[in-house]
Amino acid sequence: MARVTVEDCIDKVDNRFELVLLASHRARLISQGASITIDRDNDKNPVVALREIADETLSPEDLKEDLIHSLQKHVEVDEPEPDPQAASTEAANVFEGGVEEDAPEAVSFDRMSEEELLAGIEGLVPPEKSDDY
């Protein structure tokens, strides 16, 4: 039985700590049912993971990306920014008498300054206490 050592893998993954992270992640994937890319030879999952890295049957970059993805709790979705030309096209769809039937309704927001907001908050009256509670 051939043994796999860190020296077999260190030329594929330069950092020993990163090697441990990648091999442990791959071993967990194998234990969850992922297919292995080499013969098992009665080896345990961590040894199989190290042998896969040493034999270059798996790309360390792919393993690293998979590890990062598995640790993310919030994945940002890259959505395209609104096109300024599209906004002007939507504005052109507005007729003098109203909005075109297929166009969505325009949303408008009221803007107020910080001073107006503070004045409004100061003008609020606390709720009256009642005996019902």
Describe this structure as you would to a colleague.
With 133 residues, the chain is mainly α. The protein is built from six helices and two strands; from the N terminus they run αααααββα. A two-stranded antiparallel sheet has the order 1-2. Helix 2 (16-31) packs across helix 3 and helix 2 (16-31) crosses helix 4. The model has no long low-confidence stretch (mean pLDDT 79).
Brief characterization of the structure:
46% of the residues lie in helices and 3% in strands.
Give a quick set of tags describing it.
mainly alpha, two-stranded antiparallel sheet, 6 helices, elongated
Fold topology:
Blueprint: H1 6-10, H2 16-31, H3 45-54, H4 60-71, H5 84-92, E1 94-95, E2 98-99, H6 114-122
Antiparallel strand pairs: 1-2
Helix pairs in contact: 2-3, 2-4
Beta-strand share of residues: under 5%
- Indicate the radius of gyration in whole angstroms: 30 Å
Let me know the number of strands: 2
Broad shape: elongated
Q: Name the structural class.
A: mainly alpha
Give the overall pLDDT as a whole number: 79
Order of helices and strands: HHHHHEEH
Summarize the main sheet: 2 strands, antiparallel
